[in-house]
Amino acid sequence: MDSYTLIGFSVFLGAIFVGGAISISKMLAFHSPEGDRKVQPYECSEEPIGGARIRFKVAFYIFALLFLLFDIEALFLFPCMKIFKAVINNQVVGISPTILFVELFIFIFILFFGLIYAWRKGVLTWE
Amino acid sequence: MTENNMNPLSTEMLYPVQNGIGNMVRTLFPESAFIINSLISICSLFLLVSLLPVFLIWLERKVAARFQARLGPMRVGYHGLLQSSADGLKLIFKEILKPEGADTFVFFLAPILPASATFLVMAILPFDHHLQVADPAGGVIYVIGISGLSILGILLAGWASNNKYSLLGAMRSGAQMISFEISLTLVMLLIVMLTGTASLREIVLSQQGTVADWWIFKLPGLGLIAFLMYMVSSTAELNRAPFDISEAESELTGGFATEYSGISFAMFFFAEFVNMFVSAGIAATFFLGGFLAPQIGVAFIDPLFAVIPGFVWFFLKTFFVIFLYMWFRWTFPRLRVDQLMYLEWKMLLPANLLLLMSGGFFMAMGGIL
């Protein structure tokens, strides 16, 4: 059996667990009559003014973009890291350790430069 | 579960008890040994995941109480051991409320997602030599990918609730979790670079030998720094104090979970506590030798430690890390949002890139291996 089949099987069990808990609760839970105050969004007993889907601070968006950048960076670094030890020990034919190390250095340096650029632009400062 | 591809002699000597059980299964049912092994692993995993949060919530309350010189829960069961089961049972009987204007589908989907995602990561934790449901070759990248699902659940919950507190809490913790996920990923990549493998089981096996071979002590000082970085970023990833700005009891009431009640609320807590166990387990796997018994080089203690089965060591190490998480909560004051972002983007991230470079440098110089 493939390892992902086994993972799938345990996730299936997990879904049964979660679904079972929720459906048991649906059957057993107490229901009181609905009133208009009962379903009001909680705002410390103030009457809520307007909905909650409002315009939001743009800094969150910029951080999400930066996250995408660096997470993809990590993904690109991953294969390089995986073979790094084998290359250093000369177990991989055709890749020289020095070249790999220099390439790694250049790649991380470019990212570092990008981080410094964002820093200088003041994007990383939260107000 | 991959086949055991290491030197059989050393395993036999190190783990006599487990190999005894494994050999018994193999001789009794030679063809179906693999299936039986997988079934045992999956069933014990299922039991473990459903009982863990109950125990962890009790532990959290007890540790918190002891730090404040109180007793904590004492009434239900021996030293309050059944308190959290009673609380869980009570939550099942509570009504599930949906606030006005909430998005019904997303509102009910949000707690289910992170709760079932916890099973995904638990399935690849190496509890013992033969107690691991699956061991995919790209285990590390898999862990990184799945940990994103808990962020998704929180963001969905905050948006769907139609509540300003929920939205603020969700956005805050979303920004925090994606930021700290980068440094978490980079620390994991450092270990992948040092071991040359991405399978969690092989990462554990790369630490065989004495305690000095664990990654936390291995590189001259760098291993310890990497462990500290892992602890900081995983605490932030778990939304635990001192990084709990998503809830920050005095500011945002319940954060993203403000509008949740009954079993939906319980699901969030379930996911939160299992995630804490998973983070601690990964810390134990990556840095503290996972299921390997600590060999300290003393002639009469080492064989004694080796007799104790591996999962006991795994749980001891994991609960040590969990205790550290609980300790942090009562030692460090909460950070502001801007301090949090400063810590991640201007301190941890550059430090992580430097750490990665120096790790590569050490390897290239052949200093450590």
Condensed summary:
The complex is a heterodimer of chains A (127) and B (369). Chain A has 127 residues and is mostly helical.
Give a verbal description of the structure.
Chain A has helices at residues 3-28, 59-88, 97-120. With 127 residues, chain A is mainly α. Chain A folds into 2 domains: 2-39; 58-121. Chain A starts with a helix and ends in a 7-residue tail after the last helix. The model of chain A has no long low-confidence stretch (mean pLDDT 82). By secondary structure, chain B is an all-alpha fold. Chain B has helices spanning 8-14, 16-28, 33-67, 83-92, 104-122, 139-160, 164-195, 200-205, 215-218, 222-237, 249-252, 262-287, 302-307, 310-331, 337-365. In chain B, helix 2 (16-28) runs antiparallel to helix 3 (33-67), helix 4 (83-92) crosses helix 12 and helix 5 runs antiparallel to helix 6 (139-160). The longest helix of chain B has 35 residues, at 33-67. Chain B is globular, with a radius of gyration of 22 Å. Mean pLDDT of chain B is 82; it is low at 1-18.
Write the layout of secondary structure elements.
The complex is a heterodimer of chains A (127) and B (369).
Chain A: H1 3-28, H2 59-88, H3 97-120
Helix pairs in contact in A: 2-3
Chain B: H1 8-14, H2 16-28, H3 33-67, H4 83-92, H5 104-122, H6 139-160, H7 164-195, H8 200-205, H9 215-218, H10 222-237, H11 249-252, H12 262-287, H13 302-307, H14 310-331, H15 337-365
Helix pairs in contact in B: 2-3, 3-4, 3-12, 3-14, 4-12, 5-6, 5-12, 6-7, 7-10, 7-15, 10-15, 12-14
Descriptive tags:
heterodimer; A: 127 residues; mainly alpha; 0% strand; flat; B: 369 residues; disordered N terminus
